[in-house]
Design a protein that fits this description.
15 strands, alpha/beta, 4-stranded mixed β-sheet, 341 residues, 9-stranded mixed β-sheet, globular, Rossmann fold, binds S-adenosylmethionine
């Protein structure tokens, strides 16, 4: 798989390369997803479209909110265990899926740089601004680190990753929880096939807990999560000539114990008619009509380990905080599942 282009920098930074896989065709994929999702019942939009430059900035603000425990809990686990994780995985390359601002990543990069002769970081994210800004920051901060960033979709473009030795694939932040069970099984199976005998996968998962704490994390007092949620409507307005009135929708987030997930929705606060010009689509909303915009699954250890095993991956490390709020699980291809490439 070849990139559609490369971002260039002046002056050229020899240890930095940024491949762009997310070309103009993403607009077609976006249009198809919006057409399908808003034309279905119940109406639904994929969460990856929250993350344009504004959405990525809003997510970074969410990670600093007092109610949003996942980021600081995962960070604390990494502060304690990153050296051990990198050592036990024998990693020389860090590939990060949905890397975002790559702030927590520094905790994995530091032991990697210490142990690897030629350390390489490969962030992949849908958001160009996130990959570009993080890559430049890390190159400037860490002498000897090479960065090969990929602006693309980790569900479509992993075939275009650069070949590299002893890769630790990190999938942090609980992003895997945005996938329902079938979707996740399909994704992990494909990812598992990419892993060679020297590679490992580190997955960050949010754990099941009391619903009050979960719901508070997605209903912050400052309303940043509400702004983030509505940003998906702004991306439709900006890219597909939509005329959603963002004030016409309220942010809803609640824990669904049956599915063990937080569900985020946008609820119309009055009857309204919305046009999406690029799709030649008109949508009628009654007051109270909703669009599901995200699920965020909350796992038990048994559940995530079962999902990994179904995908042919064998868990061999479990790192959590003392209150079991969040966990990182380390896995490798099970014997007999190693990719031939
Ligand atoms: C919940 S944020 C987590 C960011 C960071 N890993 C962290 O732990 O703070 C999810 C990130 O994944 C990216 N993302 C979501 N779906 C993606 C996809 N299909 N392909 C590439 N990036 C994706 C988003 O742009 C965003 O930066």
């Amino acid at each position: 798989m070849e990139p559609v282009g490369e971002l260039s920098f002046a002056p050229v930074i020899p240890s930095l390369r940024l491949d762009v896989f997310r070309g103009d065709e993403w607009i077609t994929a976006f249009a198809n997803d919006v057409n399908y999702g808003l034309g279905s019942e119940p109406r639904e939009l994929p969460p990856k479209y929250f993350y344009d430059a504004r959405g990525s900035r809003l997510f970074d603000r969410i990670t600093e909110l007092p109610e949003y425990y996942p980021t600081r809990t995962e960070r604390a686990i990494l502060e304690r265990c990153a050296g051990q994780i990198v050592g036990i995985a024998g990693a020389e390359t860090l590939v990060e899926l949905g890397s975002g601002s790559s702030h927590k990543t520094e905790l994995l990069l530091e032991p990697l740089i210490e142990r690897a002769a030629n350390p390489l970081y490969v962030p992949i994210d849908f958001s160009e601004s996130a990959v570009r800004e993080a890559s430049v920051r890390l190159i400037e901060k860490y002498t000897g680190l090479r960065v090969h960033g990929v602006i693309g979709d980790f569900e479509k473009h992993l075939g275009g990753l650069p070949p590299a030795p002893a890769r630790l694939f990190a999938f942090l932040g609980g992003t895997i929880g945005n996938m329902k069970s079938d979707h996740m099984a399909f994704f992990l199976k494909r990812l598992g096939r990419l892993l060679g005998p020297a590679d490992s996968l580190l997955v960050g998962v949010d754990l099941v807990k009391e619903s009050g704490e979960l719901e508070a994390a997605y209903n912050d007092a400052q309303g940043v999560t509400a702004e983030f949620n509505k940003n998906v409507l702004a991306t439709i307005n900006d890219n597909l000539s939509g005329d959603f009135d963002l004030d016409g929708f309220d942010h809803i987030a609640f824990f669904d114990p049956e599915n063990s997930w937080i569900e985020m929705r946008l609820r119309a606060n009055a009857a309204q008619s919305v046009r999406i010009g690029a799709l030649d689509m008109r949508l009628e909303f009654e007051a109270g009509d909703e669009i599901r915009t995200e699920i965020s699954r909350k796992f038990s250890r048994e559940e995530i380990e079962r999902e990994l095993r179904i995908a042919g991956l064998e868990p061999y490390g479990w790192y959590t905080d003392e209150d079991s709020r969040f966990a990182l699980t380390l896995a490798a291809p099970a014997a007999g599942q190693i990719a031939l490439s």
